[in-house]
Description:
This protein is 71% helix and 0% strand. By secondary structure, the chain is mainly α.
Amino acid sequence: MFFRPFIVSLAVIVTFLVNVAVACASDGRGIILDLTTSLPGIVALSLFVAAYAVVILEDKLHIRKSKPVLLAAGVIWVLVALSFRKAGMPDAAEEAIRGNLLEYAELMLFLLTAMTYINAMDERNVFLSLKGWLIGRGFSLRAVFWATGFLAFIISPVADNLTTALLMGAVAMAVGGKNRKFVVLACINIVVAANAGGAFSPFGDITTLMVWQKAKVEFIEFFDIFLPSLVNWLVPAVFMHFSISRESPAAAEEKVEMKIGARRIMILFVMTIATAVSFHNFLNLPPAAGMMLGLGYLGAFSYWLKMKETRLYEYDAILGVNNGKFPRDKDAPVHHFDLMRKVARAEWDTLLFFYGVILCVGGLSQFGYLAKVSGFLYHDLGATTANVAVGILSAIVDNIPVMFAVLTMDPVMAHGQWLLVTLTAGVGGSLLSIGSAAGVALMGTARGTYTFGAHLKWTPVIALGYGASILCHLWINSSLF
């Protein structure tokens, strides 16, 4: 099973980090206390490794990924509090955890609004309509390959890469049918494109959002890595293009009409993004506050939409017809657009997972581990090497804890280096199918066709794109280093 080498790789990495920490334990660079070789510190690190191993085996153990990290986070901070109390600093742990909680609160509120809008557009058939339009065009397999890749690249900057990959993957599988080779190549292309598109936007990936909220990169500055991100997708896509048949499968009849209010919800989502950016750039307020105002936009519109739908339902009932905009069984209960239902449908397991990760990494930083690793990576190896390694590591370990660790270390480096680590952490997950949420999701929907091994065969080409994107960034943004 591919999970075995994955676990071995994780164990090797963790062992390496522990050795680095132990080797540096006497250098006096600990930011609060140097507890890397203490029993509580070692227990805390072991707990995080064990919890993350369970996360990796989520599909095999049938356990939500949030549960192990929530448990580990709580125990780690108990160990932090006891260690600080023993050192005569009883209030230090409280101050530290409050900082982590504030960071999580901003991230959670931002994502909650984004997820609610995505759920609202999904319920209004926005994505189904797009899927039906693509399937009904009668494009050739090569055209579908490029269309789904391009759309994944331009949609993922505003929608998360998971939703984008699932939508485009459904189109590729519907068009490809039993053509296994096409489905595999299309899924790989979609994963690479979705991850690359998310790298140059603060809304495209959790890691870019964290970098933006930490004010390491301003909103407009993310577009400095647009061309490197585009190169990251185009290089492997060009190689895969020649392995795809020119045939044109028959067009499928799958037309889906968007429900009332769909276009206005899309406009409100764009306005919400603009509000979040304005809050950050012009008012010096957290972007999350702007997103919550945007949720208020949707709340106000949802009231109008509910009233509108009620009148239309009543009109249909009087005439004894169904106008087609609200397909339902005659005796089925009426379900109006309800904002709270969209909030409830948010990925709460994912949001709680982020809490566990942020608190776990924050707790380990209090023991001094991140300071030691930061000294080794960014001082001894150099920022460029370290940031390239971060991208490779994010293909093995989820990029969220990796990026949060880098932000917690807060190494002193040039602005170009912060853009580099943003790029590599965003696109590095494409190297393996398990390296990103997009890849894992498509492995589930295209089970047995798009697999770890099928993706691995094209990893050298994807790695070529990874290297080319880094060189492109070093070249076109040389003035930022």
